[in-house]
């Protein structure tokens, strides 16, 4: 009897069903369909697997949990942490399927700023209170603008104080009748004064080169303590003059006495000698006349700087060399009242800082402010 052997059709793939039909091998894939549209079905090593089809229901929204039941997708809102792409919010969490952030707290507790956030950084813009009026002082208080009128009182009774919105304070001189002027001390129009410094003593831009104090450092300071003016200065008082120090490295002296004489001279007496190392300037406020006197110990030649040339200048002046004569306030270095050979020794001590003096060699003054 003739017996045939089955044709070998195994493809060694456990996920196929191998058969022979009509002499032909057939390899039919194992049917793993579970009938659930929510899974991806497949065979691995002869075993059917059913994986959730994640892409089928993915709505690309981090704030929903994507579910598939019976082939139908559903998207349930969650409360996961998230980022809403806004750097000006914090503690972003999902709510109702949407990422929601809490606005960043930028409150600076200043009611006069508008608080905001830009690119994650807090901003505090001052409340705009400028009313474009130069006659008001614009400020903010308690979340409200205050536009307070400026005080244009210059405490000068010889000016008419006013304020122009586009300029601010203006101070116009009081218009006095012809032949009169406004007196700062009397606060009224008085007969005109021609008080001036044309022949002042000491003269304008004079420099006191004498030692600033006796040989003991604790002794009272010495130097110019008064100035003599020419002209019709009678009737003027201390308040009719302005005293200032340039540069302002020391307090300005005060005028303690104003005495006018019959020869049309007036002497202003200060409460002490003018400060050293600077200019003291006196201005007649009624007409702007101004004179400055300086104090620079050792500056014999009046150059505004102390150096070895001052010793030569003193020697030449004491010897009566023509065109080299210097006034007493430049040569009487020791304040004796007479310029003599002893002043040369004292000048050397002064420049070198000997005998209780500061070192004045190399010191200087700026240019005379009223030159």
Fold and architecture overview:
The protein has 371 residues and is mainly β. It contains 4 helices and 24 strands. The strands form 10 sheets. Strands 17-19-22-21 form a 4-stranded antiparallel beta sheet, with no helix packed on it. Strands 18-24-23-20 form a 4-stranded mixed beta sheet, with no helix packed on it. Strand 23 and strand 24 form a beta hairpin. The chain is elongated. The mean pLDDT is 86.
Instruction: Provide the residue-averaged pLDDT.
Output: 86
Largest sheet: 4 strands, antiparallel
User: Order of strands across the biggest sheet?
Assistant: 17-19-22-21
> What are the secondary-structure elements, in order, as H or E?
EEEEHEEEEEEEEEEEEEEEEEEEEHHH
In a nutshell, what does this entry contain?
The chain is mostly beta strands.
Main features:
4-stranded mixed sheet, Immunoglobulin-like, 371 residues, 4-stranded antiparallel sheet, 24 strands, 8% helix
Element layout with pairings:
Blueprint (H helix, E strand, L loop, with lengths): L15 E6 L2 E6 L9 E6 L2 E6 L1 H4 L6 E6 L2 E6 L11 E7 L2 E6 L9 E6 L2 E6 L9 E6 L2 E6 L9 E6 L3 E6 L6 E4 L4 E4 L4 E6 L5 E2 L17 E5 L10 E6 L8 E6 L4 E6 L7 E7 L5 E6 L13 H10 L9 H4 L10 H11 L19
Parallel strand pairs: 18-24
Antiparallel strand pairs: 1-2, 3-4, 5-6, 7-8, 9-10, 11-12, 13-14, 15-16, 17-19, 19-22, 20-23, 21-22, 23-24
């Amino acid at each position: 009897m003739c017996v045939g052997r089955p044709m070998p059709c195994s493809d060694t793939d456990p996920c196929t069903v191998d058969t022979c039909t009509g002499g032909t091998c057939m390899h039919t894939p194992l049917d793993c369909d579970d009938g659930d549209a929510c899974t991806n079905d497949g065979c691995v090593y002869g075993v059917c697997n059913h994986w959730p089809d994640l892409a089928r229901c993915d709505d690309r929204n981090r704030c929903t949990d994507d579910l598939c039941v019976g082939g139908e997708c559903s998207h349930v809102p969650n409360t996961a942490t998230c980022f809403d792409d806004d750097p000006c919010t914090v503690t972003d969490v999902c709510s109702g399927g949407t990422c929601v952030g809490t606005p960043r707290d930028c409150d600076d507790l200043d009611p006069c700023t508008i608080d905001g956030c830009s690119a994650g950084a807090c901003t505090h813009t001052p409340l705009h209170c400028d009313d474009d009026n130069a006659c008001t002082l614009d400020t903010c208080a308690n979340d409200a603008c205050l536009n307070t009128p400026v005080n244009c009182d210059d405490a000068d009774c010889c000016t008419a104080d006013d304020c122009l919105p586009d300029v601010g304070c203006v101070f116009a001189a009081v218009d006095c009748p012809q032949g009169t002027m406004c007196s700062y001390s009397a606060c009224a129009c008085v007969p005109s004064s021609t008080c001036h410094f044309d022949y002042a003593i000491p003269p304008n831009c004079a420099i006191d080169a004498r030692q600033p104090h006796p040989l003991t450092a604790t002794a009272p300071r010495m130097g110019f303590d008064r100035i003599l003016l020419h002209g019709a200065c009678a009737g003027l008082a201390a308040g009719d003059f302005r005293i200032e120090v340039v540069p302002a490295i020391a307090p300005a002296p005060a005028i303690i006495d104003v005495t006018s004489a019959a020869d049309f001279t007036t002497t202003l007496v200060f409460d002490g000698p003018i400060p050293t190392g600077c200019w003291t300037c006196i201005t007649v406020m009624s007409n702007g006349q101004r004179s400055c006197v300086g104090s620079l110990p050792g500056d014999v030649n009046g150059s505004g700087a102390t150096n070895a040339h001052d010793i030569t200048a003193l020697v030449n002046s004491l010897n009566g060399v023509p065109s080299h004569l210097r006034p007493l306030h430049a040569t009487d270095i020791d304040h004796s009242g007479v310029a003599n050979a002893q002043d040369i020794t004292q000048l050397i001590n002064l420049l070198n800082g000997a005998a209780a003096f500061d070192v004045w060699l190399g010191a200087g003054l700026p240019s005379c402010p009223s030159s």
